[in-house]
Amino acid sequence: MIRAKNIVLGVSGGIAAYKSCEIVSSLVKLGAGVDVIMTANAEHFVTPLTFETLSGRQVVRGMFEERKEFDVRHVSLAKKADILVVAPATADVIAKFARGIADDMLSTVWLAAKCPRMVCPAMNTGMYEDAATAENLAILRERGVLVVEPGTGRLACGDSGKGRMAEPRDIVAAILDAIAPRRDYEGRTLLVTAGATEEKVDAVRYLTNRSSGKMGFAIAEAAAERGADVVLIAGRVEVPLPEGMREIVRVSSTEEMCREALRLFPGCDAAIMAAAPADYRPEEYSASKIKSETLTLRLVKNPDIAAALGRIKDGRKLVVFSAETDDLIKNARAKLAAKRADLAVANDVTREGAGFGADTNIISIIDAAGSVTDYPVMSKRRLADIILDRLAECYGP
């Protein structure tokens, strides 16, 4: 998929530069051509010779280094790149990219590039969490730049927190997804639910939850990019509806979502239940606004959508989500069995980076045999592909 692709890898001055050697090696083994651009600070951590040996190409270092052939180097590199990746991307280079500063070869190529661009942040936790860095990354995301979220753990400075550059295998996977998307879901139809439901109390009030729809939409988009016909059922959401869907059905209440899911599931190969339907609804609804000093609501149980689909699976696959605050794996395993699901995606919504509305998530996936695989904090889009990878395994080789 990546053979004959040209990748320009920018390496800036951080301790994580040593990990970039593995990125180059992996890409070359996959058949890609790799040009490495090193900043002056990067050379304090890894020598250019290392990257030249791994890539088989001369490392680009300065704007005015002597060359045997003539071309406008920053333009020629930008034109040949199928993707420009910067790993590690320090706070300094991220700031340059966001503000349009071009004072070295890497930042100049960045501005000249018209191909997809990706940054892999790596820095101290305090620097990563600083408002300036957050703003700069937000600017890059708005411009369509792909951001491979850093991991959480012990840093080179001795601190512990978010800021470690993502592992090389995850960066390589993100590069593959960006320039050589898989089409392993062609011929399959997936039902995806997303967002929150609303349970009316009176003419102006309703009960709901904090689900934004981001995780469900990320799964729907990833599935469509991998060739699936996606039927999306969306409740209340806080983000724009995704493009490329075969059908989008809007619903309000849990009963409506259940009715549509039961209608659509027989025509699908699998269902991924990423929505957060309300478990309860008011027993009575007032067509007029309730005006009272006190209000007592009697709640009744809503239909269990995942369980309803589990009862009519008949060879189809079912993925359920289990958002928990306590006993994550225990509760997720119980849900997996009760719904007759093939996979359960569990996340502790109290953990930093995994809550409602965040662009990242932290999940564990439990299969039908009860085996648990934990995944670190990463973007919901990257996790969407991981979930689809695991679902594809359920179909066998």
Automatic annotation (TrEMBL):
Region feature Phosphopantothenate--cysteine ligase, mapped onto this chain: 190-397
Co-factor binding comment: Binds 1 FMN per subunit.
InterPro entries given in the database record: CoaB-like_sf (IPR035929), CoaBC (IPR005252), DNA/pantothenate-metab_flavo_C (IPR007085), Flavin_trans-like (IPR036551), Flavoprotein (IPR003382)
Regions crossing the membrane: none
Domain Flavoprotein residue range list: 5-178
Active site: 157 (proton donor)
Cofactors that this protein relies on: Mg(2+); FMN
GO BP annotation list: coenzyme A biosynthetic process; pantothenate catabolic process
Keywords: Decarboxylase, Flavoprotein, FMN, Ligase, Lyase, Magnesium, Metal-binding, Multifunctional enzyme
Gene3D superfamilies with a match to the protein in the record: CoaB-like (3.40.50.10300), Flavin prenyltransferase-like (3.40.50.1950)
A GO molecular function held by the record: FMN binding
Pathway annotation from the record: Cofactor biosynthesis; coenzyme A biosynthesis; CoA from (R)-pantothenate: step 3/5; Cofactor biosynthesis; coenzyme A biosynthesis; CoA from (R)-pantothenate: step 2/5
Residues the entry annotates as binding CTP: 279, 289, 321, 335, 339
Chemical reaction(s) catalysed: (R)-4'-phosphopantothenate + L-cysteine + CTP = N-[(R)-4-phosphopantothenoyl]-L-cysteine + CMP + diphosphate + H(+); N-[(R)-4-phosphopantothenoyl]-L-cysteine + H(+) = (R)-4'-phosphopantetheine + CO2
Pfam families: DFP, Flavoprotein
Region (Phosphopantothenoylcysteine decarboxylase): 1-189
EC nos: 4.1.1.36, 6.3.2.5
Stretches assigned to the DNA/pantothenate metabolism flavoprotein C-terminal domain: 186-393
GO cellular component, one term: phosphopantothenoylcysteine decarboxylase complex
NCBIfam families: coaBC_dfp
Function in brief: Catalyzes two steps in the biosynthesis of coenzyme A. In the first step cysteine is conjugated to 4'-phosphopantothenate to form 4-phosphopantothenoylcysteine, in the latter compound is decarboxylated to form 4'-phosphopantotheine.
Family: In the N-terminal section; belongs to the HFCD (homo-oligomeric flavin containing Cys decarboxylase) superfamily. In the C-terminal section; belongs to the PPC synthetase family.
Protein name according to UniProt: Coenzyme A biosynthesis bifunctional protein CoaBC
Lineage, broadest ranks: Bacteria, Bacillati, Bacillota, Clostridia, Eubacteriales
